[in-house]
Specification:
The chain has three helices and two strands. The chain is mostly helical and 70 residues long. It has a single domain, classed as Helix Hairpins (Orthogonal Bundle).
Length: 70
Amino acid sequence: MNELQIARINELYHKSQKEGLTEEEKQEQQKLRNDYIAVIRRNLRGTLDQVSFVNPDGSITEAKDLKRKK
């Protein structure tokens, strides 16, 4: 997701508030929003995969290892 796509999301939002969107613009807005959400989820997953927990006995458990045990 680049700055132009984010700017387009905002542009479509403001247009929807002022005058409404055409069907094509609504579809474009939905696609851009879905792409944005996918990027956010990927970034969050990458961050969470880096999390580690220190156990009471001093050992370290990585969050991604906990996910695999379930």
